[in-house]
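In response to a reviewer's request, we include the raw inputs and outputs for one of the modeled complexes. The two entities were modeled together in a single run.
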Amino acid sequence: MHDEPTLAAHLRRQGISRRSFLKFCAATASLMGMSPSMAAEMAEKLGKVTRPSVIWLSFQECTGCTESLTRSHSPSLESLLFDFISLDYHHTLQAASGEAAEHAREAAMKANFGNYLVLVDGSIPLGEGGAYSTIAGRTNLDLLQETAKGAAAIISIGTCAAYGGIPYADPNPTGAVPVSAIIKDKPIINVPGCPPIPLAITGVVAHYLMFGGLPELDGLGRPKSIYGETIHDRCYRRPFYDQGKFAKTFDDEGARAGWCLFELGCKGPTTYNACATTKWNGGTSFPIESGHGCLGCSEPNFWDAGSFYKALSAPISPLGKAAAAAAAAGAAAGVAITFHNRSAKAKAKAAHQTVTVKDLEK
Amino acid sequence: MSHMDLLIWARGTGLQLALGVFVAGMVLRFFEIYSLGRKPDLSTPRPGKAWAGWKTIVSRSFPHPSMAKRTYPTVVLGYIFHIGFFVALLFFAPHIRLFRETAGFGWPALPTPLVDAMALAAIIGLLMTLGYRLYHPVKRFLSNFDDYLAWTLTLLPLLTGYMAFHHLLLPYTLMLAVHILSVELLLVFLPFTKLVHVGTIFVSRWYNGDMLGHKGARL
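The model returned the following structure tokens for the whole complex.
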């Protein structure tokens, strides 16, 4: 796969028009927060890059992230990603299997040591010595550590790789951890989401290819350009929130009128992602547009943040038992204090000395 | 700990703990107050004062005419703060949702911009009460740590709620967590500071009124 010197030459050979390439660059530039004029520059720069080797490691995952990318839209602009890179190892997409597959990974690592990109989806189980997920008889931890050694950068695709995701959810039976808990000496870009928006995946890769570095990241290691604003702030239903118009059930008048889904558990206010602007399925819609609240899938621990159908302002855990126990404890303490106060009063009364006129005349 | 982790803690364990302390504290305080006991009053009640306690509950909501002029900043600022606080607490849609989820019943919300304005009024009212407390020599002299603590604990939920709603200063997730935590702090301290008046004010007004009525005082 390394016979083409540049991406432009490769695209020409694949019959991909310059027009669709430019369209992709414009969409990517916009998502990554660059100025529109950067699209042409991006096309030129990307055209000149030599296709880098990419090793995609799939650990405790559901393949949803790969599905998001490959089935996003057909024929998808996002699938152009596979023309930008030399995808040397990917369980789901590679033709090779068994030893040949592992050999492909080792060969790519050897040939591009220090320069290849590692894309990870899925969390890494540490419980039982990592036995919960193994590939070719080796634990995910082992494979990640070995592959990361020669990586230029690691991109954690999806919430599982970025923050642990669903395997990490309480009680975390496999002892799952995100990539960042293991790899400390390599640049890591988190592209969370369950799955992430396809253009977010390709955007980060394109940014890396173009500038050779990481985009500006927030405190959670996410590109600010994609994860800089909440779903709520960009939601087309936001005016209804401001007016206090809320759907109470999924089938009432409010729901039909497209009112805000806050009371039905929408996590849009605390979810930083670009779904409301970039949208899904080739720009068709996003979950709220389909009438369901945001689950907050791109946030850490979204699975433990209470019911998907409970409003953000509602408590996560039931309060009745805690309140009843507290009332009982308070009553017991109250009775104790009552006895204490009564006995103090009685003692004071007993110790009271009466003063007579005689005493005063002394 | 990410912002989301903090929010999850605040909405889960934190709320359980705070509510536990609040409920236990309030029950304890009521036991404490009621068990103090009163000496039996053997005097004959003065006639026509049977409603004195109930009347006082209402009448103490207005300043005594002879005092009105001297206390009007306290009264006006007190009203602005209390009304703004109650509107923000009880008529903001997400808050009503909280009551509905926990108590099983709710009521209609007021339009968000109105609640927003009332919350702002409450904040300004509170800031001005502090200014007046510091400006007025008698008030300043009478103020102790408990007063300033109560003021701070009351301001924090209002201020953080306002800032969360308007996306000021901190990312929304963090500010929402801080807002909920500030309410939890208020719940924890409420039974043990003068803020306990939330639960005792009308009881003590009735008691005072009834006692004075019994003696035949003009109310």
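As requested, we also summarize the result in words. The domain at 229-341 of chain A is CATH 4.10.480.10 (Cytochrome-c3 Hydrogenase; Chain A, domain 2). Chain A touches chain B through 48 residues (CB under 8 Å).
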